[in-house]
Write a structure and sequence with these properties.
The complex is a heterodimer of chains A (369) and B (224). In chain A, 21% of the residues lie in helices and 36% in strands. With 369 residues, chain A is of the alpha+beta class. Chain B is globular. Chain A binds chain B through residues 48-50, 75-77, 79-83, 85, 89, 91-93, 102-103, 105-106, 134-137, 150-151, 154, and chain B through 117, 119-120, 122-130, 133, 137-138, 141-142, 222-223.
Chain lengths: 369, 224
């Protein structure tokens, strides 16, 4: 039983809008998902201390930032948060270097750690070429990278990312997402990620809370949340399965991605350099199941697996298969009839068949240095 | 010309206007910030009170100051136990110009502060900056041009002050006689050439300051 990382109990009325959030999670990367107007930004700003809730308590990683019962409300400068809003809010009168250094005065940084952190952030987010530029001369994607960098450089104890990519077009999101993945992995900070894009949650978050009309109405790992009936209409955009791996070899338009040292997947994607870290998405209904190793197939991926669980629902049967040896799990959507005719049961050895072009590359980050 | 050279008049005028600007600089910026950033119940009363000198006849303001600093007035020498040296002195002219110039400076300063996105200030604090550091590092630099314009506008208004000044400080050549008062004197004495010369000077100075104000208030080019 791991300790709660996020303990958010917020009751507030902001401009006639009622926020009544009750959200406790032990996920270190927690997503907040919901339609616009659901109160996502109000909640993020309450955590940051920009707005004062009427009642409740806010604690991150065991540290209480707000507690109405104890009349405790830390001012924003003592909350130790790196906050990245949708519009970046870069200081327009300072160049990028000064923006990044703006938050360098925190106590946690005073003992010489600041320069090292600055250099690490500049490296991870590839900000070097931008340092002398003014915010007004940056593109949307560059601006958000700098905003993220500035939050990181302030030496925060946690990150609040409020739709950091909402103002960017699809192509730019694809370019920024890997940086977010990298920040999440390299800095290991608790992160609250606000977005209405399922794919971003799938790639970044361990758990996602659904916020509707100021209330948390569901909370689950992203794949489960987005696969639930409530979100059926979004299923086509949000792949059920998310896998992480490293490109081992690349020939023209097919890359081989190692998921574990023993398990690899062929993916149709041009321009993936060996060493690139990728996040892959796979729809549950594009995976075939065979009970013997099939031969003479055009599909490039035939992966041995074991049936871990079978879950019947209205839409069909969700088969959870663990890739062998000791790989990640994949969910496969089957009809009831085919489940019965194949005689599938937990523990059964099967083969998963995947076309290389049914695997989507959700995020790819070239090896740095 | 009644006893004072044009240069002398100009020097008195600049000294009075500069003194008035220095006097109102802090109160104008503080009031402007307060009105821009704070909500309180009596705000519209304060706003009205601050704007009053714009619409009151300057002579009325002059009379109020005169009554305030008269020997037995609330700030007079009998009440205070010493002479504050306001009536019929350059100090009085400075004070009268300051009172008249204040509302213009406050309004412009308020607009300058309102032009700064408060979320940028919140962001500064979230990055760990104290309120004072946010004020000096974010708010003041971003409002800077507008605040300069506010002070320059106050300075311009003080330059042309007549009604309140003549009542509080009189019209003493070389001491309290500013350009506005000297023009009045020249016209009274029928020295039209002298008056015209001073009017020309006034137009020059006014043009220069208002031109500078307009330049400052124009939105600076992004990224410049």
């Amino acid at each position: 039983m791991s300790a709660a990382v996020f303990e958010l109990r917020v009751q507030a009325t902001f401009g006639g809008f009622e926020l009544a959030v009750e959200l406790v999670s032990s996920a270190r990367r927690l997503g907040l998902f919901g339609p616009s107007g659901a109160g996502k930004t109000s909640l993020a700003e309450s955590i940051a201390g920009w707005r004062a809730p009427r009642a409740g308590s806010i604690a991150l990683d065991g540290r209480t930032l707000f507690d109405s019962a104890r009349a405790l409300a830390l001012p924003p400068e003592r909350r130790g948060l790196g906050y990245v809003p949708q519009d970046g809010l870069l200081f327009p009168h300072r160049d990028v270097r000064a923006n990044l250094a703006a938050g360098g005065g925190r106590a946690s940084l005073r003992r010489g750690g600041q320069r090292a952190l600055f250099q690490r952030v500049v490296e991870v987010l590839e900000l070097g070429p931008l340092l002398e530029r003014r915010p007004a001369t940056l593109s949307g994607g560059e601006r958000q990278r700098v905003a993220l960098g500035r939050a990181m450089c302030s030496g925060p104890d946690a990150l609040i990312l409020d739709e950091p990519m909402a103002s960017l077009d699809h192509a730019l999101r694809q370019r920024i997402l890997p940086y977010l993945v990298r920040v999440g992995e390299e800095f290991e900070l608790p992160m609250l990620y606000v977005s209405h894009e399922p794919i971003e949650h799938l790639v970044l978050c361990e758990e996602v809370a659904l916020l509707e009309r100021g209330r948390v109405t569901a909370q689950a790992p992203p794949a489960d949340l987005f696969a639930s009936a409530w979100h059926a209409e979004r299923l086509d955009q949000a792949p059920r399965n998310v896998l992480r791996g490293t490109v081992s070899t690349s020939t023209g338009d097919v890359a081989r991605v190692a998921l574990t040292p023993e398990i690899a997947l062929d993916v149709s994607a041009a321009g993936l350099a060996p060493g690139a870290r990728v996040v892959l998405g796979l729809s549950a209904d594009e995976i075939l199941v065979a009970i013997r190793r099939p031969e003479g197939l055009s599909a490039r991926n035939v992966l041995p697996a074991t049936v871990a669980a079978l879950d019947a629902s209205r839409a069909g049967v969700v088969l959870r298969a663990r890739l062998e040896p000791e790989g990640p799990c994949l969910d496969v959507l089957l009809t009831r009839a085919s489940t019965e005719s194949l005689g599938l049961a937990p523990g059964a050895r099967i083969f998963l068949v995947l076309k290389s072009n049914s695997v989507r590359v959700l995020s790819a980050l070239a090896p740095s240095g | 010309m009644a006893g004072a050279s044009t240069i002398e008049v100009l020097l008195v005028t600049l000294r009075v206007a500069a003194g008035a600007t220095a006097l109102i600089a802090l109160p104008a910026l503080a009031l402007g910030w307060w009105l821009a950033r704070r909500e309180f119940s009596a705000k519209s009363v304060v706003e009205t009170f601050v704007a009053l000198p714009i619409v009151l006849p300057p002579t009325a303001i002059g009379y109020l100051l005169l009554a305030l600093f008269a020997r037995s007035g609330p700030l007079g020498s009998e009440t205070l136990g010493f002479d504050p040296g306001v009536l019929f002195t350059a100090r009085g002219a400075t004070l009268a110009s300051a009172v008249v110039a204040l509302p213009l400076a406050v309004r412009t300063a308020r607009l300058a502060f309102e032009g700064v996105d408060p979320r940028l200030e919140w962001m500064g604090r979230s990055l760990g900056l104290s309120r004072a550091a946010v004020l000096s590092g974010i708010t003041l630099p971003l409002a800077g041009r507008g605040l300069c314009a506010a002070l320059l506008l106050g300075f311009s208004r003080a330059l042309g002050e007549f009604g309140a000044t003549v009542i509080v400080a009189g019209n003493i050549p070389g001491r309290t006689q500013t350009l506005a008062l000297a023009i009045f004197t020249d016209i009274q004495l029928g020295d039209t050439r002298g008056a015209l010369r001073l009017v020309g000077l006034c137009v020059l100075i006014a043009f220069a300051t208002v031109f500078a104000v307009e330049r400052l208030l124009r939105r600076p080019k992004e990224g410049a």
